[in-house]
Amino acid sequence: MKVALSEARKAYSLAEVPVGAVVVRDGIIISAGHNLREHTQSALAHAELCALDAACVKLRSWRLLDCVLYVTLEPCMMCIGAAINARMASIVFGCSSQESRSANITEIDIKGGVLGNECSFLLSHFFLKCR
Questions:
Q1: Which of 22, 28, 64, 105 is the most buried (most CB within 10 A)?
Q2: Largest Cα–Cα distance of the chain, in whole Å?
Q3: Where are the alpha helices (H) located in the chain, listed in sequence order?
Q4: Does residue 7 carry a catalytic annotation?
Q5: Digit-coded pLDDT (tens) for 9-37
Q6: How many C-beta atoms lie closer than 10 Å to residue 52's C-beta?
Q7: CA separation for the pair 23, 88 (Å, rounded)
Q8: Is 50 exceeded by the pLDDT of residue 91?
Q9: 38, 48, 74, 107: which one is catalytic?
């Protein structure tokens, strides 16, 4: 977590929200990242995603099995989802955030089932070919 805090300080020095993250496996730091949303003008440039992306590149795999994500601030739903999709073992965070609570997801209107059969067919066909 001390390295994540160091990353958060880097973000702070760039006038970014000071959030830092590191990916660790077997006690070894694989990657680190800090918030760069303002600098890149990208909604995806969260510290966690920067660290996850760097870990994937370094390990040459999108599967971050047995890795732990350390982050200074409670991750948002997007970052938690990315960690889950990367097959991370766990997430450890420093402080809680009211803004990161999953209840905020209800602020978005979500509609499902649009061309559902076609979407399902394409996915099923793809995975049948893979097996």
A1: 22
A2: 50
A3: 2-13, 37-40, 47-59, 77-85, 116-130
A4: no
A5: 999 999 999 999 999 999 999 999 999 99
A6: 26
A7: 9
A8: yes
A9: 48
Q: Which amino acid is at 74?
A: E
Average pLDDT estimate for 42-61: 98
Residue 57 CB coordination number (10 Å): 12
Residues contacting 78, CB < 8 A, separation 6+: 44, 46, 49
Gap between the Cα atoms of 76 and 107, Å rounded = 14
Q: What's the pLDDT at 100?
A: 62
Q: Which residue reads 């394409």 in tokens?
A: 122
Tell me if 67 sits within 8 A of 24, measured CB to CB: yes
Are the beta carbons of 12 and 18 closer than 8 angstroms?
Answer: yes
Q: What are residue 95's phi and psi, to 5 degrees?
A: -120, 155
What are the C-alpha distances in Å from 71 to residues 14, 19, 33, 44, 59?
18, 7, 9, 16, 20
Distance of CA 42 to the CA centre of its chain: 14
- Spatial separation of the C-alpha atoms in residues 8 and 21, rounded to whole Å: 8
